[in-house]
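Hi V.,

You were right to ask for the full record rather than a summary. Here it is.
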Amino acid sequence: MRVLLVAMLLVSVPALAEKDDMSGLQPMSKRQLQSFKAWISDCPAKSDSLPRDCPRMLPKQKQRLDKVDPKDLNHPVVRKYTAMYAAMEKNYNHWKAVEDGKANQRRATQALQRNFTADVEKKHYDAIYKLTQLKNGESIINHSHFPGAVEKFYEKSEALQSLAKDCDGKYASLKDSLSTVRRWKWTKGEVCATAKEWKVHMKTFAQKSVKKHNDYILEIDKKSNKKMLKDGMTHDGHIADLKGIGKRAEKDRGSFSAIFKKLGATLPASTFNSWVEEGAHGLKIFAAAKKKRRKLPVGKKSSVSFALKKATKGSGFKFVKYGLRSSQADIEKNGLGIPLYKRWVADVLLKKKGENYCRVYTFGVTADYKGGGRYQRPATTFTPDKSADYRVGSCR
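Predicted structure:
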């Protein structure tokens, strides 16, 4: 552009090597014209500074020409220099309009790029991320296989329809090589392709989520049932799951079916039947375990028995019997060898109100050291929660 402006100026400005006859001009007019001549003669020679220096001086040169005495306006030299100035100003204005247009276009493109990045990052990042990773064959299911998580992700993915329209609309002029959002080097083309094919990738996501969900729940139940089969060990959460697994299978099947229907697919009616089968198997194991007699350790100590009965009193459980795994307590000492407390481990058979079987819980009973070779009375607590393990068996 600088070379073009130089050429335009050289073509427009008459040769200045010739000597201009300034005779007959007023002194003021002569001084202004001589300064103007020096400036306009020097400009074309400074081609590297034309866009910056010469155009910047145009207003000052206009002031010089305006200071020419009105009596000299018809003088040949005045008319010549006025024409030179007019040509230069015209060329500069044309060049500036072209440059301003390019700058405005650059700014508009940059603004569009920022809008595209913000649109993807603020509204669609999670959906684009997961669907892109899924498209590339990467495992991104993890704990998002639960129906509620899949439903929320469906809503995010469905929102990509608006981005897909914008890709063919207001973002159509952006280059496909444009990288966007955080550390992920997605191009504009990749993002738009994923947005346009969201339903295809979402269907894959839903299918993988169903399989993951089925395997996840089934694996938990199988492990718990295997543990119960081995030594009668279970917990309230496991028992509740076995009893309600049919309703859960029906509920989750319904949630996934609704998503599949929106995606134009059908969820097999047999989905999660394996849960129901494993649940029925677990209840049989549970029924057999309840009848089995659980052998307790034989150790006894009256102070420990008192602590156990006190801890379970008012808990909703009836104290049946107990046994210490060792009649000798384990003594815990500090770095100086001074006792801190002594501890016993006891297995306790308890019967919960409303149940036709007993539970065996394991207790830790401690007696704090109070000095002089003496210990406080043994004590323990009993606050079983849903996940607390116990063994089931008969109350004999």
